[in-house]
Structure formats: structure tokens, C-alpha cells
Design goal:
Elements: E1 19-24, H1 50-67, E2 69-72, H2 73-80, H3 84-98, H4 105-117, H5 120-129, E3 131-132, E4 144-146, H6 155-158, E5 159-162, E6 165-168, H7 179-190, E7 194-196, H8 198-201, E8 212-216, E9 219-224, H9 230-243, E10 246-253, E11 268-270, E12 275-278, H10 280-284, E13 294-300, E14 303-309, H11 312-317, E15 324-327, H12 333-341, E16 348-351, E17 354-358, H13 362-370, E18 374-377, H14 378-383, E19 394-398, E20 415-419
Helix pairs in contact: 2-5, 2-7, 3-4
């Protein structure tokens, strides 16, 4: 681990401002600690091939390292664990969360003492990758005293930069709740950020970063579905109603199944100030999106009002945004369904008109090409053969055969912490 990791300022005022710093978690041993027995509990639809994941992630992270400052969760966590108070808190809370029954207290006490004696690097790994029982029956899905954080490499979800603060999200599934302990420590103690948390306002409020899009300094676009609920959105509305004279939140109701619709960024992402990527049935309110409401929440001098709009693009137009949609999967509805399933709408903007996404979604990449985005191969970028700065508008396409099977794309795997 580098000894000279220093924090940057926290400030993200849009989805497409020039990216200066991002937080990543390189997938580790935790993604190998799944079997068909526990994959569903871990929120996966399949188990992943780690060597292939490593190769794909190297190209994904390599593109980002060519563009901006990249912070890695494990490096910051290791540094924080040199502080005994932080170490003690994270060990105690992690064990408390995973072993809540009284009969486990004696086991916890012994494990806590063991973990506290580890060096910071070893402890950081265990807090993320899990800790195995001394004895295991060889077939049950309960192998770990401290469960692996299978989804931690989706850094977008458990914490979200909202302007100059960080929202520690209140996760909808227990298997992901412990991720917030790590992100809270990172942003509270390393970045010294001001924090928000919907669960402190109402324990039933739920938010996740894949649903929260920062369109501009006075507009959020939010998905409401299985991960972010109405209470979580109300928390954000009430927060900004207290602080701003004028603010807007555009809410798109999401289907509760299948799993490919877990967040708004699986069907809608900003590509530039003039373009967005969309899953067409969401706009047409067809299929899974039939009867799914789009609501504009307006905040004016502390008063919150709710207005139904036809769809997300018309809602944006009412606020002065005239975005040209690029359709996920292209013009064929069959291709749209296939490519949306593998995060075909889940793009991450490095800057205005400068995005990255999965190479495998060929019809979507073709649609971007036709819309004026130069198609760049991640291999060429990482090798230095291609310089992204030479292109006013581009899509950096990186390979994805295993990574998409985890249920997310480029936006899911990135937590931007500083943009121009």
C-alpha cells in the first residue's frame, strides 16, 4: 500500500462534469466465496470466474487511471485501521451485525480479540473478504463467521456523493448493510466529509446510489423501486426544502422485477449535457414500465409539491433540459431486452460526451457511434496507443463477459468524488 494517500475535496455537481477523482474496489477473493447455494442470497444470479473478472477489471480501472485520480477502498481502509479507535469500532460493529444472536457472543469475543491483533492489511482483507469458521460441514451455505462483502466492488451503491456531501445509503438487503460501515469510516475519517443518512431520519427510509443521478446543482433524478423507496426520496426532498429556495427531484418509478431493473441507472444514464442513454420501454411506458409513474417534485421557498409528467425526458424538458436519447440495444426491441439485461444502459461519464461502458453490448455501441461518439477500445487506451484527450466525444468500450453477470456496469462500479 502506498504511504502517501491524501484526500481530495468532495464535490460532485453533475453526472457529466470532468471527472477528477473516483473511488473503486477491485473485486477480490470475496467474489469467489459464492456457490450455487448462496449466490442468490449474495444478490447474484450466477457465480463468477475470477481470472476473467481480473482481466476485465484491469482494463476498466486502467481507463480510469489514465483519466483521473483513482482511490481504492482497500488502501484507504488499511490506512484507517492504523487508528485503534476506528479499528475497534469496525471490528465490533462488523461482528455485531453478522452475529446478532446471544449464543454467538462467546465466539464473537474470541474472534474480536484475534482480529484486533492483526496488522492493518490483514484486517482490511478480512473485513471485506470474510472470515471462515474453523469447522464447516462442507455443504451448507453458512461457512463464514464474518460474511464476505460480495458486492463491495459496486462502489456506487452504499455511498453517494451529492454535491459537497456524502449520502451513506440505507441498503435494502441485509447482505449489503455492512458495506456502509466501511464507507462511513472512509468518508468520515479519511475525506472528512459532511454526511447524510436517510435511516437516521426514518429507519424505514431506503436509498441506493444507483438510483440517484445528479443532473445539475438544482436537480436530482431518482429511481423509486426495490432499492430506493418513497421514504428515502422524501428524506432528500425534506433535506433540500430546508436548505434551498428552489430545487427539483424527478422521480421515475421502477419495476420490482426482474433483477436487471434494480436501479434507475440500469435504464437511464446521462452521457452529456445533450445526450442520455435510455431503455426505450421506460420512455414509452410499455412492457415492464406500463403504468410506472414519473413524478416531478418541486421545492419552492420550503414548500414541496408533486406533479405527474409523461416521462423522464418530458420532465427534463419542463426544466429546460432538451436531451437527445440514445437507445440501449438500438432499434430492435429484442436487442433492447438482451442488452439492457447486461447493463447496456449503464454508462459512466468521464466528462461531457466522454463515457465508458461494456463492449459486449454491440447494438448499443453502434447507436453511440451513430450519435457521434467515437468508439475507443479500452485495450488501446490502457496501452497508450489511443489518447482519450484527442476526442471531443467518445465511448471507451471495455470487455465484459463475467463482470456484467454480477448485475452492474460502469456506473455501478464507480463512486465519483470530485468533478469540475
Amino acid at each position: 500500500m502506498s504511504t502517501d494517500i491524501h484526500p481530495c475535496n468532495i464535490n460532485v455537481g453533475s453526472e457529466t462534469g470532468r471527472l477528477r477523482a473516483v473511488l473503486l474496489r477491485r473485486p477480490g477473493i470475496e467474489i469467489e466465496r459464492m456457490t450455487p447455494l448462496n449466490a442468490t442470497q449474495a444478490l447474484y444470479s450466477d457465480i463468477l470466474d475470477r481470472p476473467t473478472v481480473d482481466k476485465e477489471y484491469d482494463l476498466f480501472s486502467g481507463v480510469l487511471e489514465r483519466w483521473c485520480d483513482v482511490y481504492y477502498v482497500s488502501d484507504i481502509l488499511e490506512q484507517l485501521l492504523n487508528d485503534n479507535d476506528i479499528r475497534q469500532y469496525l471490528v465490533a460493529e462488523s461482528l455485531r451485525h453478522d452475529r446478532r444472536t446471544s449464543q454467538q457472543q462467546q465466539v464473537n469475543n474470541g474472534l474480536s480479540e484475534y482480529l484486533m491483533e492483526l496488522d492493518s492489511k490483514a484486517l482490511a482483507r478480512i473485513l471485506i473478504e470474510g472470515y471462515e469458521k474453523e469447522q464447516w460441514d462442507g455443504f451448507s451455505d453458512d461457512r463464514y463467521l464474518l460474511k464476505p462483502l460480495y458486492n463491495l466492488f459496486f462502489t456506487r451503491d452504499a455511498s453517494s456523493t451529492i454535491y459537497n456531501r456524502v449520502l451513506i445509503n440505507s441498503m435494502s438487503f441485509e447482505v449489503r448493510e455492512r458495506e456502509t460501515l466501511i464507507y462511513d469510516a472512509i468518508f468520515r475519517h479519511f475525506f472528512k466529509a459532511e454526511m447524510l443518512n436517510a435511516a437516521t431520519w426514518n429507519p424505514m427510509a431506503r436509498t441506493e446510489g444507483g438510483d440517484i443521478h445528479i443532473a445539475s446543482p438544482d436537480l436530482l433524478c431518482i429511481g423509486e423501486g426495490i432499492r430506493t423507496n418513497a421514504k428515502g426520496i422524501e428524506y432528500l426532498a425534506q433535506t433540500f426544502a430546508r436548505e434551498r429556495d428552489h430545487f427539483n427531484i424527478l422521480v421515475q418509478e421502477m419495476p420490482t422485477d426482474p433483477d436487471s431493473f434494480i436501479h434507475l441507472d440500469m435504464v437511464f444514464t446521462f452521457l452529456s449535457q445533450h445526450h442520455c442513454m435510455v431503455f426505450e420501454p421506460m420512455l414509452k411506458k410499455e412492457g415492464f414500465f406500463a403504468n410506472k409513474a414519473t413524478t416531478l417534485i418541486r421545492i419552492h421557498n420550503g414548500k414541496v409539491t408533486y406533479h405527474q409528467v409523461r416521462d423522464i425526458l418530458s420532465g427534463l424538458r419542463s426544466l429546460g433540459w432538451d436531451l437527445q436519447p440514445v437507445v440501449c440495444g438500438g432499434s430492435d426491441s429484442w436487442d433492447q431486452l438482451r442488452e439492457q439485461w447486461h447493463s447496456g444502459a449503464n454508462f459512466f461519464a468521464l466528462g461531457d460526451g466522454k463515457v465508458m461502458g461494456y463492449q459486449r453490448n454491440t447494438h448499443t455501441i453502434d447507436a453511440l457511434d451513430k450519435a457521434g461518439f467515437a468508439v475507443l477500445n479500452a485495450e488501446d487506451i490502457v496501452s497508450g496507443k489511443v489518447d482519450m484527450n484527442d476526442y471531443p466525444s467518445f465511448v471507451a468500450a471495455f470487455p465484459g463477459s463475467e463482470l456484467p453477470r454480477a448485475g452492474g456496469g460502469a456506473r455501478c462500479m464507480t463512486m465519483p468524488i470530485l468533478r469540475d
